[in-house]
Design brief:
The protein is mainly alpha-helical. The chain has ten helices and four strands, in the order ααβααβαααββααα. The protein has two domains: 30 residues; 150 residues, Cytochrome Bc1 Complex, Chain D, domain 2, CATH 1.10.760. The strands form two sheets. The protein has a two-stranded antiparallel ribbon with strand order 1-2. It has a two-stranded antiparallel sheet with strand order 3-4. It is extended. About 4% of the residues have low confidence. Bound molecules: heme C. Heme C (HEC) binds next to helix 2 and helix 7.
Length: 226
């Protein structure tokens, strides 16, 4: 291979390697905010589910989450869950979280059907959800009067606008953190258990490591003596 064609080959490979980096950079114009949630904070999760039922379940379902499971995991008495959370056509603890509005009517009103939110924190990411909720801004050219930094021309009306106006910036970001925390929990309810169980598994592996090491020393001592 001639020197020139080798140069051309190297240059092409460099361009091929760099191009994907350029496209990722331009498709992510805004850095995500760090949510700083704590999935083990049950008080925060309880505040989050109340916000969710009051503001979000009007349009969004969470079809894979049962009220019963909420009651157990969030340590809320079944009677409290029944009176405070079960609504919009749901009537018992074993029901899943419904949306108040049906999907076709919502699609006619907003142009896009509001997606089910059970797994949104999994497929979009926890920081994405938090940044989305913190990312609404006033835009007089948008049909709803609001737009979003992460979803340009968003079809979702900014249902938290009056709450946001009535709260300080710090208070509002705390509220959105609780709401995000709840959505993170909902996308993987076993996570708190998995995390605490993981600590026991690591502890067990450490003990195993020490005993295997001692056993190895014992075997090698015999070998060395021979
Ligand atoms: C009045 C109806 C309505 C309400 C109430 C509502 N949303 Fe939405 N939401 C929508 C619509 C419509 C979309 C689709 C937006 C789009 O694709 O442009 C959406 C999209 C979203 C998305 C993006 C999902 C994705 O993957 O693209 C998230 C996250 C979300 N909503 C969270 C919430 C939360 C949290 C609340 C409660 C604070 C809420 N929504 C309340 C109508 C609503």
């Amino acid at each position: 291979m001639g020197r020139q064609s080798l140069h051309a080959l190297l240059l092409t490979s460099a361009v091929i390697c760099i191009l994907p980096l350029c496209s990722t950079a331009s498709s992510n114009p805004r850095e995500l905010l760090r949510s700083g949630i704590d999935i083990h904070n049950k008080a925060s999760l309880r505040r989050g589910v109340r916000l969710y039922m009051n503001y979000c379940a009007t349009c969004h379902s969470a079809k894979f989450m049962r009220f019963e499971r909420l009651s157990e995991d969030l340590e809320m008495a079944p009677e409290v869950v029944m009176t405070d959370l079960v609504r919009f056509g749901a009537s018992k603890l074993s029901d899943t979280i419904p949306a108040a509005i049906d999907s076709e009517t919502a699609e006619k009103s907003f142009g896009v059907a509001p997606p089910d939110l059970t797994l949104v924190a999994k497929y979009r990411g926890i920081d994405w959800v938090y940044s989305y909720l913190m990312g609404f801004y006033k835009d007089s050219s948008a049909p709803t009067g609001y737009n979003n930094h992460l979803l340009e021309n968003v079809a979702m009306p900014w249902v938290m606008a009056s709450l946001q106006e009535a709260s300080s910036e710090k208070e509002f970001s705390e509220l959105m953190r609780d709401l995000t925390n709840f959505m993170a929990y909902m996308s993987e309810p076993v996570r708190p258990f998995r995390e605490s169980f993981g600590k026991y598994v690591l502890g067990f592996l450490m003990i195993l490591l020490v005993s295997v090491r001692l056993l190895k020393n014992e075997y090698w001592r015999d070998m060395n003596e021979q």
